[in-house]
Amino acid sequence: MEIAFSRLDDTVGRFCLQTSSTAFANAIRRAMIGQVPTLAIDEIRIYDNTSALFDEMLAHRLGLIPLRTESSCYVRREKCTCNGEGCPACTVTYTLSVEGPGTIYSRDLIPADPTAEPADPNIPIVKLTKDQKVVLEAKAVFSAGEEHAKWQPTSACGYKNFPVIDVRDNCDACGRCVDECPRGILTLEHKKVVPIPERIEECSLCRLCERACIGTGIGDEPAIKVKADNSRFIFVVEGDGSLPVKTIIEQALVYIKEQSADLMECIGEISGVTIDEEKEE
Length: 281
Hints:
- By secondary structure, the chain is an alpha+beta fold.
- Helices cover 24% and strands 33% of the residues.
- The chain has helices at residues 22-34, 55-63, 176-180, 208-214, 245-271, 275-280, and strands at residues 2-8, 12-18, 38-49, 91-99, 102-105, 110-111, 124-128, 133-143, 154-167, 186-188, 193-195, 224-239.
- The strands form four sheets. Strands 1-2-12-9 form a four-stranded antiparallel beta sheet.
- Helix 1 packs across helix 5.
- The two termini are 23 Å apart.
């Protein structure tokens, strides 16, 4: 298995997973979405709310605000020594006190831990008119997306099969497939249709080029064929700002490795053969 990155920064990652399977590609996708823990507001105590929003709506909006998370500083509540009571190792406290007129933004949430501030300071929460105010205390818990979507560190995470474009010798270079391609993947070169190498990954496998080729009437089979490579996958990961994309990918792979080790250990217990014995063989 190989991973080749074409883009990687704090918010977006794009990479190609090679010599793999659909099952493993989907396992990585699910791990990045549901198994990488972050902070998210889960408990709120409202002391005063005279805004236009009900308490439940206000709490819902606060829960969806991405919070910057230093993963190495926290443990999940179910594994914490506080037994779910809430302590600095698994919980961060925030305060908010704003009086109108004006708009309450995510930057108005003041964390007890400065490193756990909102990922985007300009997320609007509610607009206040004169004499309206909101005073509350919130607790963010360290957990993962498998419990609730608000803990997902990604705003978008998906993959597609790597496209393979084959132009046969019976191509008459009419150019109709070039005009039909919505993403500009094809071009005419030396009286032959060829895919542009740096744009092949943009192919959506729509096969409009095949239909255009058949429409020319040169035969029952198109001179251009588009298919999917079932051993190569193009991933696009967009983070919500709570964690760098590199960290999301690394933690997802670590989770898969740990789960694989646990599975091998269980299989060893059932079969009576340990992992070390299998390696020696």
